[in-house]
Amino acid sequence: MAEPGAAPGWAGVARKYAATLADTNGVALPTGELERLLLAFADEVADSLPPPDEGALLRFAALFGAAPIGIALADRSGVVVEANAALAKLLGGTAESLVGRHLAELAATPQDTGRLRAGLARILEEGDDRRTVRGVHLDHRVDGGLITNVTLAAVPGDTPGSRFPMLMAADADDLHLLGERLLHQNLHDPLTGLPNTAAFTARLEFSLASAGESEIALIYLDLDGFRVINDGLGTGVADQVLKKVARKLKAVFDGPHEGYEGYLARLSGDGFGAVLRGPQLTQQHAVTLVDRALLDLQEPEYLDGEGIGVSASAGIVVRSAAGDGHIEMLRAAELALHRAKEAGKAQWMLFDPHQDARDRGRYRLGAVIAGALENGEFSLIYQPTVKLAAQDQIAAVNAGLRWRHPEKGELDSAEFYPLAQTTGMTVPLGRWLLAESLAATARWRDRYGDAAPDVCIRLPKRLAIDPDLVMLVKEQLDRHALPARALRLCTDRESLFDETGEVLDSFSVLADLGAQLVLTIEGSSDLELIPRFGLPVRHVILSGAVIEALADEPAEADVRHLGQLVVRAKELGLRIGAEGVRTARHAHRLRELGVLAARGSFVADSATGDEVDEMIERHAR
């Protein structure tokens, strides 16, 4: 049986010749006959070996010939047997002229020849896989010599355990160009060719360190609604638009200007940054360039017959180079950009240190909403709606959120809801509001029976379009054993008619379950939406100018207008309430015109849970 790993044909050949050599009838074989038998044995073993992988040999030959670095293959003694064209070009001769030379003798100096011989010894005698000899002077037939790094290695031979030395070398200038190319790729955006964030940050740090007392301007620009282009026309078109945007901005900001110079980079998908510095730079220079850039971007670019224009928002910081470091300057520009976005986009904002302090405080609040909710810092705050015919009776209670901040005290929803929208926390807050409001309603019903009021809540839009809203409401109603009619959902025209119609769909399903839909209106146009779209609305709340007009001494036209609204609402079978009612006299006028219930400072601007409990208890008695 053949030993593991032996070629299949070898065992039979070995047995054959072992038998021949053993069967000599005790006669010693002559040396010539023994030599003949051994050579025959070797020939048969060679014939039994599998054929070489011709594909692998061809691939190696192609790689050897096309390699951009010089390669010389040598025999066991280190004499070159083959060299590729790259090595011949590197040494200024032909591949044939290198054959027959020892690898070490390719060096131009005795010292480097000795270094190469020592490296070859480490490869062949001590078994190192490779050895790099740095700064070797190689013999160049024309120029006399060149300095480069040489790598010595060993490649396996065609018999087991055999190793043959090889030498690899490259032109240092080529390596330098490769390094420069890699450095450029690391510091530039591949799409636009502009410097990237790393290069921009380095440039800003350098500008701050070297500008002395002169002014530095940092500008952040961000395209408005670029996703519309990306989603509507495809990423290919979007990339072309970004290239054109980059060229326009480069023409405005990059390079020398009169008295200062500019540097533009791409910082994100559709965000760009510019640094301006120079002895004559002023704030007005930065503003002028930004105005020009925003105007140029609005000019349509035609791609595939489509005229595509974009708008951008910008944040501008201009300060002495001796001021804060680059991190603070970058943050200031970001805050200014956020203000421009919040103010309506397609405009620029200058950094304002006072506004900066306020913004940082606001954003800090937004960042910790999740933890505040988990730690029980939120509570319900109520606004009671009373019947105008019997103002000691509560018709409904509007529930909202209040944040008991450990440092800032009591915060109304207007102070944190916009931040919650930015951080995605409106849904968790809305879920908590719904659950706690229905829990309070269940408690009132258990304690006060029919005297308990309904609860009315305004859901944040993000929760109002949540696909799980109906299931969530039903779960909470079932958990507290409440009928759906105990819940009133308050909304307005803008919230109800979103682009997708999802809010209306959700509220319609909830109305079918029995929840009461309340619509806040400010005039006839809002009211007429109800019959026009068949809205499942049961209550309307008059709000805004139509109520404000009756607060003091109302004009006859204002009285007539509100009276017409009440009449029309009654024709539609709606119950009419009002919000923002200031005084008892104000409430009296509204009652005379047919308004049934109202809330506002004439009762209480807000009330805690305990205060509402006391009001309901008085009503119940």
From TrEMBL:
Q: Which InterPro entries match?
A: Biofilm_reg_signaling, EAL_dom, EAL_sf, GGDEF_dom, Nucleotide_cyclase, PAS, PAS-like_dom_sf, PAS_4
Recorded hits in SMART domains, A to Z, give:
EAL, GGDEF, PAS
Q: Domain (GGDEF): give its ranges.
A: 214-353
Q: Where is the PAS domain?
A: 56-127
The EAL domain, residue ranges: 362-620
Pfam families attached to this UniProt entry: EAL (PF00563), GGDEF (PF00990), PAS_4 (PF08448)
| Alphabetical list of CDD domains matching this protein | EAL, GGDEF, PAS
Q: Which domain of life is it from?
A: Bacteria
NCBIfam families in alphabetical order: GGDEF (TIGR00254), sensory_box (TIGR00229)
User: What is the protein name given in its UniProt record?
Assistant: PAS domain S-box-containing protein/diguanylate cyclase (GGDEF)-like protein
Q: Which organism is it from?
A: Amycolatopsis sulphurea
